[in-house]
């Protein structure tokens, strides 16, 4: 009986260490650092605010359908690369709980 009791105590003592180790591995692969490719059409560019409005196609990596949305630009200078009406390829990454920022954007030739 004492052996079983000691085994249970040892297992309980190790559980938080094992859980913390597993949590750290999952955190390292968090999708927040993931950069995702997308294609869309520029509707508006606000260079002063560093924002571009794009109607993009589905983005399967994020589970997004076709949408029209504003994206902040990681660097305001990216606004100078595009103009309304252009079809563009762009890269986005998650920067908060729900915010995404454009890290690169280029017209499709």
Task: Describe the structure in your own words.
- There is one protein chain.
- This protein is an alpha+beta fold.
- The protein folds into 2 domains: 2-31; 32-107, OB fold (Dihydrolipoamide Acetyltransferase, E2P) (Beta Barrel).
- The chain is 25% helix and 38% strand.
- The chain has one helix at residues 2-28; strands at 35-46, 51-56, 67-73, 87-94, 100-107.
- Strands 1-2-3-5-4 form a 5-stranded mixed barrel.
- Strand 1 (35-46) and strand 2 (51-56) form a beta hairpin.
- The longest helix has 27 residues, at 2-28.
- The chain is globular, with a radius of gyration of 23 Å.
Quick description:
The protein is of the alpha+beta class. Helix content is 25%, strand content 38%.
Main β sheet profile: 5 strands, mixed, barrel
**Helix percentage range:** 10-25%
- What's the level 1 CATH class of the largest domain? Mainly Beta
How many domain regions?
Answer: 2
Provide the CATH superfamily of the largest domain: Copper binding periplasmic protein CusF
- DSSP strand tally: 5
> How many angstroms separate the termini?
76 Å
- Strand residue percentage: 35-45%
Number of helices: 1
- Which sequence of SSEs, written as H and E, runs from N to C? HEEEEE
Which descriptor suits the 3D outline?
Answer: globular
Query: What integer value in Å does the Rg equal?
Result: 23 Å
Structural class: alpha+beta
């Amino acid at each position: 009986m004492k052996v079983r009791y000691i085994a249970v105590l040892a297992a309980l003592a190790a559980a938080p260490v094992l859980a913390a180790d597993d949590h750290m591995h999952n955190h390292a692969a968090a999708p927040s650092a993931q950069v995702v490719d997308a294609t869309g059409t520029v509707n508006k560019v606000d260079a002063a605010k560093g924002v571009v409005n794009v109607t993009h196609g589905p983005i399967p990596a994020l589970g997004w359908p076709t949408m029209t949305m504003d994206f902040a630009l990681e660097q305001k200078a990216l606004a100078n690369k595009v103009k309304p009406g252009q079809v563009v390829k762009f890269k986005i990454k998650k920067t908060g709980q729900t915010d995404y920022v454009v890290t690169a954007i280029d017209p499709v030739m």
